[in-house]
Amino acid sequence: MPPSALRATPFAEDQLALIERLLSEATPDQLHWLSGYLAGFQAASSPRARSATSASGVATAPRAPLTILYATESGNAEALARAARKEATRAGFAPTLLDMADTTPATLPAATPLLVIASTWGEGDPPSRALSFYAALLAPDAPRLDGRRFAVFALGDRAYANFCATGRALDARLAELGAERVAPLVECDLDYAAPARAWTAATLAALAPTTEESDPAVIRVDFARLPSAESDDGDAATPASFEATITERLLLSSSRSTSETWHLELDAAGLAWEPGDSLAFAPRNDPALVDAVLATAGLASDETLRAALTERHDITTLTTPGLAAYAALTNTTMLPASFLEGRQLIDLLESSPARLTAADLTSLLRPLPPRLYSIASAPEFSPGSPHLLVSAVRWQSHGRARLGVASLDLIARRSSSEPFPVTLRPNPHFRLPADPSRPIIMIGPGSGLAPFRAFLQRREAVGAHGKTWLFFGARNFTHDFSYQLELQDWLASGVLARLSLAFSRDQPEKIYVQHRLWESRAEIRRWLDEGAVLYICGDAKAMACDVHATLLRIISDATGTGADSAAAWLRTAVADGRYKRDIY
Ligand SMILES: Cc1cc2nc3c(=O)[nH]c(=O)nc-3n(C[C@H](O)[C@H](O)[C@H](O)COP(=O)(O)OP(=O)(O)OC[C@H]3O[C@@H](n4cnc5c(N)ncnc54)[C@H](O)[C@@H]3O)c2cc1C
Ligand SMILES: Cc1cc2nc3c(=O)[nH]c(=O)nc-3n(C[C@H](O)[C@H](O)[C@H](O)COP(=O)(O)O)c2cc1C
User: Tell me, what's the pLDDT at 298?
Assistant: First the structure.
């Protein structure tokens, strides 16, 4: 069909232009994929199509097996995979949901098509529990996957240099091993919900079983199994929202501290959580920064835009694609990537001033991502009132004072009388052991202490007899010892068997939790031999890497084997649920 045939259709001019451009630039493969997508999308989304077809009694194809494989750290990929499973079931597949942590490339269900949903962590690494699968898939002796069809949806954050690195590597490797890519890799920033729905519909359409007689572009959906709109229980990828207000805000660090740590209590009636879970909320940008951005872009009088920049757009993150988009928009030379170091959008607007329209400016901005905070209390200790431990993010760069968007919103700007929505982010992979007599070792410096306060409250509430050992660290004993009295009480009562402290700035040389781990290595090994579960929470950049490296040293030192077998030991501990990390 020539693009001009579209003229006879009910599209508006701008829509026609978009469609014509897309079709004229598409490869034959892309056109084929698109036709499948449209057929599947229409079938899955039109209630009229559903009821008309089921009423007409069209024969249904047998349920085709499908494997949905996910790799997740904080649960986003898992939630999307669950939503995809639901869609796949509706579309007549017999899907199997698999966590990469629980499988290997060699034991994937034979020959079934693969939908892969994977996030990227660390500095472009796979989620920690998916490491073994990932390493095995990328290894030279990975099993061939000829004849298997696949599609990958990559989750990431454009603020990181290695955007969606895990998804990219998985997509490339599956093809290298002989599998057939049925849909192009989709790389997604933090606003992934709508693209994920579109990708799921498209790939299910592309994978739908066809018969020789039927047109290969027509999707056979098992409409009889589609639930009605009334029985639909919502989007599994969208968590339920609760209304919260801040009822208590207490500065835990002293006024002479060089950092700021706050204890917050929320009223969130109806919220039921488990120790280890987090809360997500949508922060608002600093009004002073919004003013500065508007003024620099020559848009100070646009009140609608002011509200949008305050509530909906990310006005701090600056990325390489952002620099390129700004250069293209303003017809200027793109600034080098080195410009990004310590800089934000406001610096770009000031460095290359240009008069922008509101649409120009918002076209440069991604949606303001929600932020997560570990719940620092157990529900039996503070029912309906989750506590948070929030570190204020403040720093100075290029002559400007910078403020963390969400941390400052929570501790300084948000009025305590104003309700705001929060959502629960369950973290089933970061829970206390079911057996209360099992020992636990918790490593949680800074705000990483938050979930461990909830763990200790839970252990106290149920009268657990398992030994508990906490490693906590901060800058100064006198100024930064969060929850000092509670921890000392727990030590006195035996809820906490051991407390190891590392205050980095109390002596000339820096002492961190990993130093305390090393000093206690013999005892740590004894606890591990007794079946202790090891938890790490907090800073991903420095702390978690250094702690992991120290654990490797402790294990290889004990076994007398090399770093490789220590790494293998830790990978097995991850797979067995004896080494759990919640790092950010
Ligand atoms: C599962 C999970 C649980 C979490 N739990 C907690 C918790 O219990 N308590 C808690 O406080 N936080 C927690 N966080 C982190 C929290 O979600 C936010 O990321 C954190 O509060 C910072 O958000 P912000 O909006 O204030 O800062 P942002 O506006 O997002 O600014 C942070 C960014 O600013 C930049 N930056 C920060 N400092 C510097 C510097 N010195 N120099 C240069 N650049 C810098 C970095 O790019 C950094 O990523 C958790 C995160 C996750 C994923
Ligand atoms: C500590 C940390 C490190 C991250 N590193 C990267 C990264 O290197 N590249 C990337 O694209 N995204 C990175 N992300 C973003 C995550 O991939 C993104 O939040 C994703 O939605 C998480 O999905 P999950 O909950 O399924 O793990 C990182 C996020 C955090 C908190």
Answer: 95
Atom of ligand 2 nearest to the CA of 77: 26
Residue 205 CA to residue 237 CA, distance in Å, equals 20
165 contacts: CB under 8 Å, gap ≥ 6? 120, 124, 125, 156
Ligand 1 pocket mutation, candidates 373, 397, 413, 536, criterion most atoms within 8 A of CB: 373
State pLDDT tens for residues 89-125.
999 999 999 999 999 999 999 889 999 999 999 889 9
* Dist. CA 224 → ligand 2 center (Å): 39
Residue 499: exposed, middle, or buried by beta-carbon count in 10 A (0-12, 13-18, 19+)?
Answer: middle
DSSP of 25-60, one letter per residue? H--HHHHHHHHHHHHHHHHHH-HHHHHHHHHHTPPP
409 in contact with ligand 1, CB cutoff 6 A: no
Counting residues of the chain whose pLDDT is more than 70, the rounded percentage is 85
Q: Is 372 in the pocket of ligand 1 (CB under 6 A)?
A: yes
Domain spanning 3-225, CATH architecture: 3-Layer(aba) Sandwich (3.40)
Q: Is 579 in the pocket of ligand 1 (CB under 6 A)?
A: no
Return the residue whose CA atom lies nearest to atom 32 of ligand 1: 404
User: For residue 105, what pLDDT is reported?
Assistant: 97
3-225 and 440-583: identical CATH topology: yes
The 10s digit of each residue's pLDDT in 385-434 is 999 999 999 999 999 999 999 999 999 999 999 999 999 999 999 999 99
CATH of domain 440-583: 3.40.50.80
Which residue's CA is the nearest one to ligand 2's atom 9? 163
Q: Measured in Å, how far apart are the chain's first and last C-alpha atoms? A: 50
pLDDT of residue 226: 37
Atom of ligand 2 nearest to the CA of 78: 26
Q: How far is the CA of 165 from the centre of ligand 1 (A)?
A: 21
Q: What local confidence, expressed as pLDDT, does residue 249 receive?
A: 98
**Domain spans of the chain, in order of start:** 3-225, 287-363, 440-583
Q: How many A from CA of 389 to the centre of ligand 1?
A: 12
